[in-house]
Amino acid sequence: MKYMMFVCTDTEPETDESLVPDINTWVDENDRAGRRVTGNQLVPPSSATTVRVRGGELLLTDGPFAETKEVIVGFDILECADLDEAIEVARTHSMAHAGRIELRPFHQD
């Protein structure tokens, strides 16, 4: 089953950096195991463009639409047997300590 893993900042990160796993090790291990399909960092939210159409009119907003201190800074698409495996993969990501991870399964037809 595929999962979208949103990598997000957090206002209360882990304060002991010695507990934070190395991100390059995480990527290498999950790529080798075939659990990480793809992933990448995102540029800062200030470069975002929000697109909406209302009443047939295109409305564009610079920057993120939501006013929040927590933002998505990257993503990974995981291929895991089930949610338990996806949670285990997310648990070992450095941003689970320095930020937060959100997992969402892809819709199954």
Automatic annotation (TrEMBL):
Pfam families: YCII (PF03795). Signal peptide: none annotated. Coiled coil: none annotated. It comes from the Bacteria. InterPro entries: Dimeric_a/b-barrel (IPR011008), YCII (IPR005545). Residues 1-105 form the YCII-related domain. Belongs to the YciI family. This is Transcription initiation protein. It comes from Winogradskya consettensis. The lineage of its organism: Bacteria, Bacillati, Actinomycetota, Actinomycetes, Micromonosporales.
